[in-house]
Specification:
Blueprint (H helix, E strand, L loop, with lengths): L1 H12 L13 E2 L6 H15 L11 E6 L5 H9 L17 E3 L5 E3 L17 E6 L4 H5 L2 H17 L7 E3 L26 H12 L7
The protein binds zinc ion (ZN).
Zinc ion binds next to loops.
């Protein structure tokens, strides 16, 4: 893999088109997301975006998160129970599509055709990726976790033709051109995880993979 990446980087430097990035190893570890939760997600989408669907179609944004949690299992446990979330007290409970452990293992918690509540204003079109740990620096300083995160993000963004600039940190949500929110009191709501300075580093590393194949 290292050789492949080096070869890809060399090709990118030469301005040649690149092969499609292979998906990184991903283990499916789905949280329960049955009819009740889907119905609640459709109602949430109606309230916040004016469209009564739980389906995620043509995602345009990838949002990177810090889970504030010490293990992938703890992250999954938090999302698995469908109870009102402690911050906004809404149903369905919050979730993200993926979690990247500090070992570099990647777990898929929710399939990519289903909306998750992870970023106010963007849940109608955004894929959410959680990282085990407590600060952006934890991931940027962990070669295995960062490498897995970048490979996952590159594969997703090429699969859906998402621009590098639309790979954002949660803390950048309010400046996304895709941000929309019908409830006035939530229009400025965001979180502090993956600040702009961290994401500048992250996006710079992502660009080193080169462009997606046409
Ligand atoms: Zn977040």
């Amino acid at each position: 893999m290292k050789l492949l990446l080096l070869a890809a980087a060399a090709l990118a430097g030469a301005g040649l088109s690149l092969p499609s990035p292979p998906p990184p190893p991903i283990k499916a570890w789905p949280i329960p997301y049955g009819q009740k939760r889907k119905h609640e997600m459709a109602q949430y989408s109606q309230r916040h975006y004016g469209e009564g669907t739980w389906r995620l179609r043509h995602p345009r944004v990838i949002v990177e998160h810090m889970a504030q949690s010490g293990s992938a299992a703890a992250v999954r446990n938090t999302f698995a129970r469908d109870v009102p979330d402690p911050e906004l007290h809404e149903l369905p409970n919050v979730c993200s599509h993926f979690v990247v452990a500090d070992s570099g293992r990647i777990f898929r918690l929710v399939n990519l055709r289903t909306r998750c509540r992870h970023t106010v204003g963007l849940n109608w079109t955004a894929i959410g990726i959680e990282h085990v740990g407590y600060s952006d620096g934890d991931v940027l300083g962990d070669r295995r976790q960062l490498g897995a995160s970048l490979r996952l993000t590159q594969w997703l963004r090429c699969r859906f033709r998402i621009k590098v600039r639309d790979v954002i940190g949660h803390a950048e949500s309010l400046t996304s051109p895709y941000h929309r929110e019908r409830i006035p009191s939530l229009r400025r709501q965001t979180h502090g995880d993956w600040r702009h300075a961290s994401m500048q580093v992250y996006r710079q590393k992502l660009r080193r993979f080169g462009p997606c194949p046409r």
